[in-house]
Structure prediction request, 526 residues.
Amino acid sequence: MAQQKSENRIVPEGRRKTVPTLGVERLGGGRAVPVKGEDQQLKLSFATAENPRAARGAAGEAGVDPSAPKTRKVPKAKDKQSVTGPARMEEVVEGLIEAFDKVAANKGAPGPDGQSIKWVRAHLPEVLAKLGQSLLRETYQPGDIRRVWIPKGGGKGQRGLGIPNVVDRIVQEAVRRVLEPVYEPEFHPSSHGFRPGRGCQTAIAEAKGYVEEGLEVVVDIDLERFFDRVHHQRLMSKLAKRVEDRRVLSLIGRMLKAAVVLPEGVKVATEEGVPQGGPLSPLLSNIVLDELDWELAKRGHRFVRYADDSNIYVGSERAGRRVMESVERFISSRLRLKINVAKSAVARPETRHFLGYRLHRKEDGRVEILLSERSVKRLRERIRELTPRSRGESLKAIIRTVNGYLLGWLGHFRVCTQGIEWVVSSVDAHIRRRLRAIVLKHWKRKRTIARRLIRLGVKPRTAWRRVYEGRKSLWTLSHDPAVDRGLRNAYFAERGLVSLRERFKDIWAAIGAPVQLALALVPARS
Prediction:
């Protein structure tokens, strides 16, 4: 149908275009906007929307005539002189000194720029002054992130870690300290990863309570490459709901887009994900997965989440399979993430590895917190790495190194119950045997070994016969009855060797019986 034109049309006053817009029929003298120009404006990225100058430049490149008359805009209220809501850029700048102290305490490695914590400490006043000015002026640009690969806990594959520059880690830590008070009160109480006052022990204690209630089937959900697949746009939209200062939002957006430098020197652009290794990444991951937590609570599920590992406890395998299917649909369609099918399953709690533990319900209804097979295997492997016979160190130095690892391990697994007594006893025996082999290596000759055993109380005839009988390796000789009698358990205890069994017995005696840690519950969201 042909366009009908008014015979008495009203022509707007003022300047008019001298050159007609190509491809567009002009109606009544108003300014026409090409369809392609409208598409360009609707598809502005987050960075472009935050930078109006760049947006005008992009419009010029798209073919819009810069000399065209500007349309009259509706008057808007003037912006406030300063942002008064939570998480302001001024708070970030004020916390830079405390942020550096935290970063320095972690003793991290240098980033791609090669600047160490020691160097930054030596130039701290100058570095923080320039850093604060660039943050307030919005001229700060995060540096690249160095990618390193470490073996996964299960021994299969490698995990990629991102190491930002020390200066960038200071900024991330300062932002985290400002954002955490805003989001922490809103997180679900069943989320335990990277939160103040919570950890693996509180997570396993809550899971133990669910199994005690009779929920003996667990839906074990592991997200595939979660930190590499976080959707930036969804994350930024969630942050914008609580953070009023657009400068902070723009800063986080630039951090997410920081390029990654691979070990071979190749630089890769970042389109999605949060680098696992920066101070801000754990908090951002909890912000993303908080939506999953409240969705599970809304459905009435009993669950425990630590980072990207979630365990949902149900009463039957049939219910578990149904929950797995529905939760998988929610994660893929709503969160735009993917479940790791190989690591996720519906099974009994005693067969699943959760934070290094497994839960076993006994016939009398009591639930024991045990070590998973993976944890026991990793413990033995680490002991083997710390006690090589070829290491040229004294016995005292080796025991000091082993004790450091055992005390850290004990701090993580201290909530285990008495069902692990046999396991830790066998580990203690394994450590002592490896130390005996090291002592025999230090003594070198068979003649010296026999004489030392005699000094330690072994009968001379037995010592000479057992040492020279047959061709025995040092490892075989380390478990010989004569060596066990001479290098008895007390020999290593006197030299300060930590015994896991004795430490656990002290813990069990102090508490009488394992007690579930009390967690404060918050009402569900309306």
